[in-house]
């Protein structure tokens, strides 16, 4: 026979549950308010995010120049100009070959459509030309009925392009200032924050910067490997537009999982139109092999120490980000998840009970002295065994 429930313990459990539920509601409320504010200020936040991603990619070169005697402004200017030249060259590598082979590609598409019609006319479908014509007439009528919607979508697309150009220009200027003045940020932030925040926030910011840089650089290396191997396979098969497809593969690698699928689909489609189904199947096999090597060999080696996220977490983050914010959400999903993991790990470290040995031997934490600065950058010198080496923090 079971013992009766204790009234005092039951009431204590209910009070604890109510208190925890109220605290969770407050946390969710503050999270919702923060997201609402970010949505209202997205036109300012998005260029900053893009600038940070670009800065993590270009900072190693700027740091190298600064360590070799270049003034911060000169190093930032040189790296920014070099980045613009590389970006312009990338666009040229995509646009020029596509424009030069556009006629061949159009002929291939027409021939592919004709082959599909001939295949559909035979068994087992037996679709006649009159049925195809009727389908085309129906499609044309639907397009004519949707002219207003098409115009609206076109105007929205034009507005999106204009916003994209403005965001890009603003992000380039911000990248220059981040490269020039970034190492002064953490000392300045330390001086502005009171009490314990002067210790916690700079540490979290430094770890977040390391994680963000690890993500961008690892994605760049993985994208380069994908582009080289897939481009080599396309070149051996004689597929047109090899260089644009390789560049597209590299750029798409910055959107984990989804970008690789998109680039692979485009490569298989171009091969199917130009070389036929046999070569398209070979290209598909090459892409699958390369993606398996990337997912099981390259990416775990490059990202395991930098991000520490499981592949399932990456997939779920990309899916959630894409459903919430489209392409932008897919692009930012993994770094945001990694930054959340950084914050959670730091909070867990602070809330964990230290072992008696660690408590006896750990030195007392003291806020950094603003006067203890590195002479070449004006930054606070990092503590022994903590933070980043001098010149490593933006």
From TrEMBL:
Chief place where the protein resides: membrane
Organism: Polymorphospora lycopeni
Record region (Disordered): 354-394
Protein family per UniProt: Belongs to the autoinducer-2 exporter (AI-2E) (TC 2.A.86) family.
Membrane topology value: Multi-pass membrane protein
Leader sequence segment: none
Subcellular compartments: Cell membrane
Protein name, entry field: AI-2E family transporter
InterPro entries, alphabetized: AI-2E-like
Pfam family, one: AI-2E_transport
The entry's keywords: Cell membrane, Membrane, Transmembrane, Transmembrane helix, Transport
Transmembrane segments: 20-38, 44-62, 74-96, 150-179, 227-247, 253-273, 280-299, 311-344
PANTHER family, A to Z: PERMEASE PERM-RELATED, TRANSMEMBRANE PROTEIN
Record's keyword annotation contains NAD: no
């Amino acid at each position: 026979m079971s013992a009766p429930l204790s009234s005092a313990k039951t009431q204590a459990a209910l009070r604890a549950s109510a208190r925890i539920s109220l605290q969770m509601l407050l946390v969710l409320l503050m999270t919702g308010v923060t997201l609402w504010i970010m949505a209202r200020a997205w036109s300012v936040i998005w260029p900053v995010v893009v600038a940070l991603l670009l800065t993590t990619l270009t900072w190693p070169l700027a740091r190298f120049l600064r360590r070799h005697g270049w003034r911060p402004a000169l190093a930032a200017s040189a790296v920014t100009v070099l980045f613009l030249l590389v970006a312009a060259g990338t666009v040229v590598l995509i646009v020029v070959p596509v424009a030069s082979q556009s006629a061949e590609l159009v002929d291939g598409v027409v021939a592919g459509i004709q082959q599909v019609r001939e295949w559909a006319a035979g068994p087992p479908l037996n679709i006649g030309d009159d049925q195809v014509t009727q389908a085309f007439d129906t499609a044309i009528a639907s397009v004519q009925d949707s002219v207003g919607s098409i115009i609206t979508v076109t105007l929205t697309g034009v507005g999106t392009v204009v916003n994209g150009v403005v965001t890009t220009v603003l992000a380039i200027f911000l990248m220059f200032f981040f490269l020039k003045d970034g190492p002064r940020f953490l000392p300045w932030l330390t001086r502005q924050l009171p009490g314990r925040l002067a210790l916690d926030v700079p540490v979290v910011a430094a770890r977040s910067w390391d994680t963000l840089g690890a993500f961008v650089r690892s994605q760049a290396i993985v994208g380069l490997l994908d582009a080289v191997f897939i481009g080599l396979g396309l070149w051996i098969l004689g597929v047109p537009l090899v260089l644009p497809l390789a560049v597209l593969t590299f750029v798409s690698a910055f959107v984990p999982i989804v970008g690789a699928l998109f680039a692979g689909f485009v490569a298989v489609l171009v091969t199917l139109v130009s070389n036929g189904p046999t070569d398209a199947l070979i290209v598909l096999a090459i892409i699958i092999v390369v993606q398996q090597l990337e997912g099981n060999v390259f990416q775990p080696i490059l990202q395991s120490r930098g991000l520490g996220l499981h592949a399932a977490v990456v997939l779920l983050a990309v899916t959630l980000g894409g459903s919430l914010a489209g392409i932008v959400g897919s692009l930012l999903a993994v770094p945001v998840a990694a930054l959340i993991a950084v914050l959670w790990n730091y909070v867990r470290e602070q809330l964990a009970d230290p072992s008696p040995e660690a408590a006896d031997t750990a030195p007392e934490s003291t806020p950094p002295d603003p006067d203890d600065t590195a002479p070449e950058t004006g930054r606070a010198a990092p503590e022994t065994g903590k933070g980043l080496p001098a010149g490593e923090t933006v």
